[in-house]
Structure formats: structure tokens, C-alpha cells
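Hey, I was hoping to borrow your eyes for a little while. I'm sending you its amino acid sequence along with the C-alpha cells. Take your time with it, there's no hurry, and the full record follows here.
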Amino acid sequence: MEIFGIPSQALFGQLLIGLINGSFYALLSLGLAVIFGLLNIINFTHGAQYMLGAFCAYLFLEKLGVGYWWSLLIAPVVVGITGVIIERTMLSKLYKLDLLYGLLLTFGLALIIQGLFRNEFGSSGLPYRIPQELQGAQNLGFMFLPNYRGWVIVVSLVVCLSTWYVIERTKLGAYLRAATENPQLVQAFGINVPRMITLTYGFGVALAAFAGVMAAPIYQVNPLMGADLIIVVFAVVVIGGMGSIMGAIVTGFGLGIIEGLTKVFYPEASNTVIFIIMAIVLMFKPAGLFGTQK
């Protein structure tokens, strides 16, 4: 069976790959959007923190015998704590300075972290097996859907939408948004604003680590896995709108699908289509599709 002259298996296969890539684009850009939207920090360390999540899962398994399911819970906490330390010891001193200082600091930290892991583990990918419960595939009639890939898509959607709901529809989210606009007023109500800011950064970092654990069985564990992805994720954030939570989610999944379809209809443009879209969006809507011009 063919669709638009393309074998249906090839088309649906690339759609699946696009959805999987979009899941990671959405999770990572969501973490970036949370950190930028609520803390006004351009976090270039995000790709390295995604890599740290994958390496935590790998080392837990190899050194401690801790499997995938526990790693999915523990690794984001461990990497999130490192994020809290970075925020308290370094980033907190830059809030009153230009955005460029935070960008340069996080970029330098990313290079340091990636360099340390590259020296220790090399550049080749380290295998991480799919948990036994998620091995195999489902026959959908028109294609086979690997269980683990389906799990990644569903969990990414749940995590992304839950984060959006907490930030946009709950009292905690209202406090977070208010703390970024008027921290003195929020502090007058007895809320510890610095602690809230620190935990928010830690949560954004934990999202990156969570994505890293889920990516480990698909892409293997590699010190440069974050560096290869972070530029694309920043493009996704710019297209969706810097700081827009829903923009990060919708744009992440949408661009993943567009990238997958491009590999079918015009493979030569698959590596650049996201950046072409970014350039077009910036020409007509500089704040991004879901952003607001301040």
C-alpha cells in the first residue's frame, strides 16, 4: 500500500521516529521553558544535564545493579540536586546582571561536564538495555509499534501536560509566576522566594535528566548526546516562544513529526527543516508562535 507514492510502512515508520524525537524535544524544551520563563536564565547546561541523566541510569545499572524503573525515579533527583547546587553557588549571583552572563556560565559548565565524561568514557556509545517489561512490539495492522517507543511517547505527553497544568492552573504555579514578576510582594506573604527559585531550577534540570534516562535504551549513552541535541531544542524553544510552556510542548511534538515527514518526502532537508522554520517564524513573529512580546 502506498500513500502519496510512498510505501505506507516507510511513512508510518518515519512518523513514529518523528514522534519519538518530538517526545524528547518537548521534554527538553519544556525544561528550558520552565527555567527561562520563571527564572529568566538561558540554560545552556541543559544538554549536559540530559546526558547526566542517561549516565546516572547506566552507572546505577553497571555499578549498583539498579534497574531502569528505579533509575527513572532516582536519576532525576540526583541530577536535580546538582542543579540546585549550581543555582545556589553560581547562578544566584547573576540574576541582576545581563542574560549574557548566565548564558556564558551555563555554556562553560556544559563544556566542562561533557569534557570530563568524554575523558572518562570516550566518545563511543554505551549500550543500555530496554527493561524486560517493555520489550517486544504491538501489531497495529499498518505497522509494528515497539513497546518501549510507545511508552516514551505516552509518558512524555503525561509529564509535559502535568507540568503545564501545575504551572498554569494551580496555586503553586500562580506563586511561581508571581515570584518572577514581583518577588518582594510574594515574599511579604511569607513565601521563601529564593528557595522557590532554586527548586524551580532543580525541577527544570530534573526534567532533562528524566528525558536522558528514557533516551538511554534508544540512543545509547554518550558524553556528547546532549551536545548533539541542545541546538535543535533551543530552536524548538525559540519557535514555540521563549518561556512558553504550552509552546514548548506543542512545538516539540509538532516539529518532531515535521522532521520525520521531511525524511520521507525530501531527505536532504531533514537536518535543516527545523532551522528553516525557525528563521521563517522569527521573520514574522519574533516572540515565537506562542510567545508574547514584552
Notes: Residues 2-120+146-229 form one domain. DSSP finds eleven helices and four strands in the chain.
